[in-house]
Structures are given as C-alpha cells and as structure tokens.
Amino acid sequence: MACFMLVSATVSAGISASRKAELHDLLLEDCGACHGITLKGSLGPSLRPTALAGKSKAFIVSTILHGRKNTPMPAWLGVLSRDDASWIADQLLNGTTGAPD
Ligand code: HEC
After folding, report:
1. Predicted TM-score of the model (pTM)
2. Domains present along the chain, CATH in parentheses
3. Of 34, 54, 52, 56, which is closest to residue 96 (Cα–Cα)?
4. How far is the CA of 12 from the centre of ligand 1 (A)?
5. Of the candidates 2, 35, 50, 89, which lies 20 to 30 Å from 74 by C-alpha distance?
6. CA triplet 33, 93, 63: central angle to 5 degrees?
7. What is the pLDDT along the chain (101 residues), one digit of tens a residue?
8. Helices and strands per DSSP (H, E), number in the chain
C-alpha cells in the first residue's frame, strides 16, 4: 500500500524516470535535428534559456504540442502528452537539457 501510494504520487507529479530518459533523447536528437544539437538554433531558433527569456511556459508548451502553422515546427501532440511537453519546457527554460555547449 505504501509502495502503491509512492508510485501514484510520482505519476501525479509528472512522468516516470524512464520516460524522462526517452524525452531527453528525443529533445537532443529529434528537436536537435532542427534546433541544433546544442539547441542554439539551426533551421529552428535557439531554445536556450536566454533565447526563451520572457516567453511563458504555457506558450512554449502550446508551441510544442500544436506546432507553428506555416513553419517547419511540427505539432508533437500524439507523440508527446501535455505532461511530456511540460517537462520538456521546464528543461528548456531551466537550461537543464544537457545539450553540449
Ligand atoms: C522540422 C524542424 C523542427 C523540429 C523537428 C522541431 N522544431 Fe521547434 N521550431 C522549428 C521552427 C522552424 C520554429 C520557428 C517557428 C516560427 O517561425 O515561428 C520552431 C519553434 C519552436 C519553438 C518556439 C521558440 C520561440 O522562441 O518562440 C519551440 C519552443 C520549439 N520549436 C520547440 C521544439 C521542440 C521541444 C521540439 C522537439 C519536440 C521541436 N521544436 C522540434 C522547427 C522544428
């Protein structure tokens, strides 16, 4: 019972450690394909904290889930849940993506 409660608390707080590892790879490989492996920008703009300063987390989450019409930025809804996108937005805003400098 205690164990079950611990697990559900972890789930309600966000996403599992293994999902975080998957998202981390996706961020550097799939997002990095357009935003650069360093996330400093390539086809897509820089996703470093300085570049995103002043943009709200809700705006970033919405961009990730729905993409940007008439630009190459794809919608990730279906691949990523809202929790996934929220976790990714936190990593981008906090500069904890682990992207090389
Ligand atoms: C096929 C190329 C491509 C891929 C893959 C891609 N993006 Fe983008 N992304 C873009 C482009 C181009 C823009 C700029 C859109 C515009 O002009 O408004 C963008 C914009 C963004 C923005 C808005 C930045 C800002 O300053 O407003 C965020 C956040 C973002 N992408 C996150 C991601 C994340 C996270 C992933 C991976 C899950 C991802 N992107 C994958 C091309 C891509």
Report:
1. 0.90
2. 15-94 (1.10.760.10)
3. 52
4. 27
5. 50
6. 60
7. 555 555 444 444 579 999 999 999 999 999 999 999 999 999 999 999 999 999 999 999 999 999 999 999 999 999 999 999 999 999 999 999 999 98
8. 6, 0
